[in-house]
Design goal:
Elements lengths: L1 H21 L8 H20 L10 H27 L4
Helix pairs in contact: 1-2, 1-3, 2-3
Length: 91
């Protein structure tokens, strides 16, 4: 389940980048936005990699809920980041 949320977060980042590339004639390049996208992608990958050691634990609901917080925040940050990028298009 955690990997699915991380995959959705990465897919959302890819969709946002694809939207920016398709509209590159109308959108200006902004370095902090690009660095933020790279940071979110690396954060999702590192979070997935760090959870690999937890595969042999006996899980309870509290542990599962707590470990869903990180991927959920990455997903929402990616969605918020992309929606802000599409609003700042130049004329």
């Amino acid at each position: 389940m955690i990997s699915v949320i991380l995959a959705l977060a990465i897919a959302q980042l890819y969709l946002g980048m694809a939207d920016l590339l398709q509209n590159r004639a109308r959108v200006r390049f902004f370095l902090p936005h690009t660095l933020w996208n790279i940071n979110l992608f690396l954060l999702a990958f590192i979070h997935w990699w760090s959870l690999w050691t937890f595969r042999e634990l006996s899980w309870n609901f509290a542990m599962f809920f707590y470990s869903l917080l990180g991927p959920s925040l990455i997903f929402f940050c990616g969605g918020h980041n992309q929606s802000q990028a599409t609003l700042k298009r130049t004329n």
